[in-house]
Write a structure and sequence with these properties.
heterodimer; A: alpha/beta; six-stranded mixed beta sheet; 6 strands; B: alpha/beta; six-stranded parallel beta sheet; five-stranded mixed beta sheet; 15% strand; globular
Chain lengths: 184, 617
Amino acid sequence: MQFVIVGTGGQGILFASKSLGHIAMEKGRSVVGSEVHGMAQRGGSVVSHFKVGEYLSPLVKVGEADVLLAFDQNEAVRNLHYLRDGGKLVVNLYDPEAFENDRLQSSLDRRKIEVHPVEGYSILKEHMGGRFLFLNVLILGAMCGAGVGGVSMDEMSQAIRDLAPARFVDENLKVLKLGYEAAR
Amino acid sequence: MSKRSILLGNEAIARGIVEAGCEIATAYPGTPSSEILPAVAAYSDQLGTKTAVEWGANEKVAYEMAVSASFGGKRTCCIMKQVGLNVAADPFMSTAHFDLKGGFLLVVSDDPGPHSSQTEQDSRYFAMFAKVPCFDPSTAEEAKEMVFDAYDLSEKHGIVTMLRPTGKVDHARQDVPLRDEVLPPRKDEFKKDPKRWVCLPAGVKVNHPRLNDKNDAIRNEFEEDYGKYNYVVPAKGTVRLGIIAGGTTFAFLSDMIRTSGRDDIEILKIGTPVPLPVKLCDEFIARHEKVLVLEQTYPVIETQLNDRTKIMGRWNGFVPRAGELLPELIEGIIAECLGDKVETSIDEDVRSAMEEMHVTPRPPMLCPGCPHRASFFAIRKALPKAINPSDIGCYTLGIMQKGVDSAIDMGAAVTAASGFYLASKVDGEERPVVATIGDSTFFHSGLTGLASAVYNRHAFVLAILDNRITAMTGGQSSPNVGTKLRKGDQGVQIDLEQVCRGCGVSYIKTVEAYDVNENVDVVKDAWAYAWENKEPAVLIFKHPCITILKEPPTPRPVRVDPEVCIGCKYCITSFNCPGLVFDESSKKAYIDERYCVNCGVCMSVCPHGAIVSREEA
C-alpha cells in the first residue's frame, strides 16, 4: 500500500504518516516513508510519502500511489499525478464549487479515481470552535470512513490514543469520528 | 538484535552512534542533518551512556572539538550538513593527514534537490579530496549499520571516516533493528606526541604517503571484506542492462524491480564509493555490454572508473548533471539507455484545471506571525533605497518582501555589508546598507565579520533578528539563549549587546520586532549614525519565534475593510503573510482565517488603513 500525503506547512501532515506507521507496525508490517523538513514552510506546499510492505525506497513513484490524502484541495490537484489509475483521493474541500471544475472531473473520471471529499474547515468551525489544528485527525477519520487505505476505525482510534498528547486525546477522538461520519 | 522500531533515518544514525560506543558527539544544526544530535542525547540517556553532546557555535568549532576528543582513544563524532563541511574543511583536511587513535566519525548529510541548501554539492568529493573513506547508505537501516563499520575502520587505520547520507535517508521513516547492548567506553589516554598531533609542514613528508598507503589498504578491504555494502544483485531474466548504483538510487531500483517485475537489469550496489572498489566495478563492467551509473549527486563513482567506454552516465549526458534523481526520472533514464519508448503522461486536463482553479505555486514563506516579517517591513519602509544583504536561515525568506538582496553563506550578511559599503565609498556616494542576520548565524560566523567591519570603519546597519531559537533547522538553542541540548544542562547565556560592544560597536539598540511603526524611525536613526561616524550600527530586533511560544499571545484579530481597501496589493507584496490573500474576483484583500494567527501586526501595514481590528467593526 502506497500513500502520498499533501497539504501546506503547519497542517500536521507528519502526524498522519506517523499514525499510519504506528498501525502498520502493530500489525508487524514493514514501513518506509519520507518526511519533509527544513525551510520555514507554514503555508508552503508539503508532500510526504509513505509505504507499507517490503519496500526500500522512501519515495512513491509518480502514478503508483494507492491513496492520496490531501489536506488542501489545491494541493490535491497539484499532486494528482502521484495516484495510479483507480487510486483513491481523500480531500479537504473549502470551495467545493471550484473543485467541480469540468476538466478536473473529466480527468478524474477517465482515470477512475475515487474521490472522497470532506469539508474540513466548516466541520471544525461548527464543532471545534474553528480550531483548524485538528484537521489532520479529521482527514484520518475521513480516510477510515471512506474505507480506503486498509485501516479500520478501531485501529486508527487506538493509534490516536497512543500517539496524541494525553490532554488532547478526547478531542482528537471526537474529531476522528466527525471525519469518519463525514466521509461515510 | 530482536527489537524493531520505526525511526527517522537521523534517529537510526544516532542510535547507531550511541550503540557503537561514541562518547563525545558534536554538531551544528543544518537540514537534513539536524535531528541526529538531539537523538544521540535521547538514546544516550535511554541506554545509560555518559555521551557528551554539544552544539558547536559552527561546524569548524564542532569538528575540532570532536576530533581532538578522539586523540586519547575515545570514539567521537561530528555531525553537519554538506555546506557545513565547507566551514569545517580546514580541520577536515588537516586531520585526514593525522594518524588518529580513537575512532572518529564524520557524518555529513547531503541535500540533493536541494530542498533547503545553498548548493547541491556532493560530500563524497570532499572525501576524495581529503582521501578519507566514505560510506554511502541506501536506507536508514543501512546507515545505522554503517556507523559500526565506520568506527572499526577508523580505529583500525587511524583515519577519519565519513558517513554520507542524503536527505531521503535522513528523513526517511523506516522500521530498523535496535541493539540493547552498547559497546564499552574507551579510556582517554592522550599521550604527548608533537609529531603526531601538531600539524606542521615538515610532517607532510610522512603524513601524506602514509595516508596514501591507508587508502590502498582500505580500497582492498572494500573489494574483499565489505560484501554487505558492495555486491551484485543478479537479474531474474535475460540481462539487458547493468547498473552501478549507490545511495538512495539503489533503494529505488530495488523497489522498481519488485513492483514492476522488471527482470532485465543486473545491479552492482556500491555502499563505499571512496576509495572505490575498482576491481569489483571492472569485473561488473566487463560482463555487460552497457553499464549505467546512477548515484547522487555528482559522478563520484563514475569518475573513479578505469574504463568509461561502455559507461552511460553524467559525462555523456544520460544522467542529468544537476537535481535529485527521483524515481520517475530514473525510470526515464533506464528507458532511454535501453532505447525503449517512454510514455509521457502530462495530463492536459489537470493542467488547464489548475489554471482555471488558480492553483498557483505555494513556495515556502515566513510563518504567519513571524517577527522577521515585521522587521523586514520596517527596514524596507525606513530606507527603501538601501541595499539589504542577508544570510542563511528563515529570514532568507525575507526575499519575498524584497528585503534580501544577497545571501552567500553563513555570516556573509556582515561581510557583504562591508563589501557594499566599500563599493559605494570608492564612488564617494551615500548608499544605505542594512544587513539582516539571525542570532544563531551571528554566532556561527557573523562575529568575525563584525570585528573586521569595526576595525576598518565600515558604515552599515546590522540588524540581528533575535528570535531566541535556531528556527529553520527545527528549534535548536544557541549561545545567546544559553540553554543546552540535554534537559537540565545549563549553559551560559551570552548577551548580544555585550558581544557587539566587545567587538567595538558603539551604537547598539534592542527593539521589539512587532513595533513596526516605531522601528521605521529606529532604522533611519541607526543609518544616520553609521554614515556620520563611519562605523557599523547594530539593531537587535527581538521577539520569540512563534513556533516556540508555550502560551499564545493576546490575540489581535483583524479584518480587511472592503470599503477602504483599494486593491493595491501593497500588503501582499510588502508584508507577504499567508494569512493575507487577494481575491481576484472582488479585487480586494481579505484575511484567510485558516492561516491567520491574530498577531495584528498587519494593521500597521496598509497605507490606506483598510486592515483594522475586528473589534472596531
